[in-house]
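In the laboratory, one determines a bound structure by crystallizing the protein with its ligand and collecting diffraction data. In a computational setting the workflow is compressed into a single prediction: the sequence and the ligand go in, and a structural description comes out. We illustrate the idea with zinc ion.
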Amino acid sequence: MELDFFIIWPFFPLVFIFGLIFGSFLNCLIWRLYKGDTIWGRSYCPWCGHKIHWYDNIPVISFLLLKRRCRFCKKKISWQYPLVELLTAIFFLLSFRFNALSGFSVVKLLFDLTLISLLIIVFVFDWRWFLIPVQTLIFGALILLALNLFLGFSVGQLFLAMLIGAGFFALQYLITRGRGLGEGDIWLGGFLGLAFPDIGHLITLFFLTYIIGGLTSIILMSLGLKKMGSKLPLGIFLTISALICLFWAENLINWYLGLIL
Ligand SMILES: [Zn+2]
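The predicted complex, in structure-token form:
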């Protein structure tokens, strides 16, 4: 069923607000996964442990009203909080839009929202702590595997893509003897294989990762913010590329083929 743009646009603010609230939940989840806390219970300040009132927990708005500080201990609140909320909202909205315009599928929407959430969790973990949350990835991979089977991909195709994804980074890990990337990146490669079973899309994703990573290195080095040979976490470029390829892999492939043909 193809929906007209004019029918779906009134839902955009609702989806965006849902994304903001879900992003707020992801922030809370990321901290609890990192600390090994239980997932349930009221939000608390990571510095002083004080419980956060509901009116101090409104996505983005509370961050601005509190002027980046905890109401109780006055310690600075990380930019991670509004950034994750906004990113989640923007990508949830994109997913809803693309889905609605290409024949609405609940399974595909669930798949997209799950993948976006997992990519944002991995992004923050690698950015802040140079870690890949492997247990979370495995748990998420099982959900994506089930949804991809529903979407019509065969077990063989999913398995092959997972092998290519993990193998690509395992090979680099062996060649560089673990200096260029970590074990977590091999897990992330396998996970991305499962998430992008179309091999063309997977190769585009890896290609884009090295372009974004390379450009970022050059920019940081020319600004004197990074020394030659110092490490940048690969996971952040992989997740950024995956978020782009989720919606625009086909466009990127066509654009690239147009350039070389
Ligand atoms: Zn505090």
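Residues 43 and 53 are 8 Å apart (CA to CA). Keep in mind that any predicted model is a hypothesis to be tested, not a measurement.
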